[in-house]
């Protein structure tokens, strides 16, 4: 089994608000520094994305890839790589858990990346950690700054 990297963050919002931002792929370029374009290619019966094409620019890794998404209830989404130019694997998940009476959410992001070019495992893990940390920080900022978030601090 491939090694993976994971990290968690607590967001001041209900799980449904957090999942709403995660599921809104069209807006990824607004808050995830690395995703330059996102296009939903297929949806399930509930209207959730099943396949998404992403144009990624993460410095050393520039790629146009397609991911397949699996939704588990309202608190978990996972993905696997369908096709890519540079990647051999890009498997991950967001898992959400309500905390503090449900007005906060602990988000755990797990990721496994494998590139087609040779790369030391230690360097891959560091790249995964950078991707995860940026994604969680961007997600937190996006959700907590959303005017419709009832947990958002009042100005």
Structural features, described:
There is one protein chain. A hairpin with a 4-residue loop joins strand 6 and strand 7 (104-115). This protein has helices at 15-23, 28-31, 121-145; strands at residues 5-11, 35-43, 49-58, 61-72, 76-83, 87-99, 104-115. The protein has three helices and seven strands; from the N terminus they run βααββββββα. The chain is of the alpha+beta class and 155 residues long. Helix 1 packs across helix 3. It has a seven-stranded antiparallel β-sheet with strand order 1-7-6-5-4-3-2, covered by helices on one side. The mean pLDDT is 85.
Features:
155 residues, alpha+beta, 7-stranded antiparallel β-sheet, 3 helices, 7 strands, 25% helix, globular
Say how many strands there are.
Answer: 7
Strand order of the largest sheet: 1-7-6-5-4-3-2
Pattern of helices and strands: EHHEEEEEEH
- Gyration radius, rounded: 15 Å
In whole angstroms, how far apart are the ends? 48 Å
What's the rounded overall pLDDT mean? 85
How many strands, which pairing sense, and closed or not: the largest β-sheet? Answer: 7 strands, antiparallel
**Helix content range:** 10-25%
Low-confidence stretches: none
Oligomer: single chain
Question: What would you say about this model in short?
Answer:
The chain has 155 residues and is of the alpha+beta class. The protein has helices spanning 15-23, 28-31, 121-145, and strands spanning 5-11, 35-43, 49-58, 61-72, 76-83, 87-99, 104-115. A hairpin with a 2-residue loop joins strand 3 (49-58) and strand 4.
């Amino acid at each position: 089994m491939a090694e993976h990297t994971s990290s968690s963050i607590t967001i001041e919002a209900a799980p449904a608000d957090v999942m709403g931002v995660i599921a809104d792929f069209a807006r990824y370029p607004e808050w995830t520094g690395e995703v330059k374009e996102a296009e939903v290619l297929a949806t399930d019966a509930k209207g959730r994305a099943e396949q998404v094409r992403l144009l990624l620019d993460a410095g050393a890794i520039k790629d146009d890839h397609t991911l397949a998404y699996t939704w588990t209830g309202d608190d978990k989404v996972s993905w696997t790589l369908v096709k890519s130019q540079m990647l051999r694997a890009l498997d991950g998940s967001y898992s959400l858990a309500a905390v503090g009476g449900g007005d906060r959410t602990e988000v755990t992001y797990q990721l496994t990346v494998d590139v087609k070019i040779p790369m030391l495992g230690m360097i891959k893990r560091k790249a995964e950690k950078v991707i995860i940390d940026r994604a969680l920080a961007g997600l937190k900022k996006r959700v907590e700054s959303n005017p419709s978030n009832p947990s958002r601090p009042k100005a």
